[in-house]
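Q: Structure tokens for this one, please.
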Amino acid sequence: MVIICQCQNARLVSEATRRQVSDALKSTSQPVVYVDDLCALAAKKNPLLGQWAEQKELVVCACFPRAVKALFSHAKVNLPESTKIFNLRTQQPEDILSLLPVELDDKGQTPPKTIQATDPDWVPWFPVIDYQRCKNCKQCLNFCLFGVYSMTQDQTVQVSLPAKCKTGCPACARVCPYAAIIFPKYDKSPINGDEVVEAEWKKSHAASAASLKDRLSGNIYQLLRNRNNRAASVQSLSDLEKLKDSFDIPEDLFESHS
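A: Here is the predicted structure, written as tokens:
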């Protein structure tokens, strides 16, 4: 089975690459499924993800492999080691086609299916966690203003309310010291799910942490602790506005909470 994400909301996948791969897959007996947005499907924990993971030869054409694995993990699905993941954002179509573990021929062609998962009232922008890197330090949980994160019964941080995340804001990922928070629709590495270059990330995070400590007097947790207190939340946002350039916090985040 081949899954192709069309990234309908952010349109980050290469349209030319997707089209060329899609055209080639018209000549295969393997089932082909087009998903308008894999992030939207994962956010809803659609049971299709679990069904696909049970396939013996699953191929996912979407974005960065680390992001794809984290999206399935968010839906409580572990992809088997045999899964082949191709990055439509960065890989050339010729490279993808040369590595596809499916036969391209005209025999027994199966009509492709299309899965619509998007909600017109919500852009599926939300964080997913790379648990291979996560140390459960809870900095994302303590930093987030919107209650996106919570703790499981075994005291593991999880993304429980993805729809509460503020579209375009990757601040919690910048706070994470282990590069464990992924925003698949983000444009910069490694927060977009690209592989982590440890030296570069440590340098980047050290600079961000120093900026945070300097501008907020190192007391971010106290500022954000009382999320139900509107006055406290507004004050926190006022202080956070000083960091919007360093953390890529969108301008309308502050406007919507003024």
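A few notes: The chain has a mean pLDDT of 82. Residues 2-115 form one domain.
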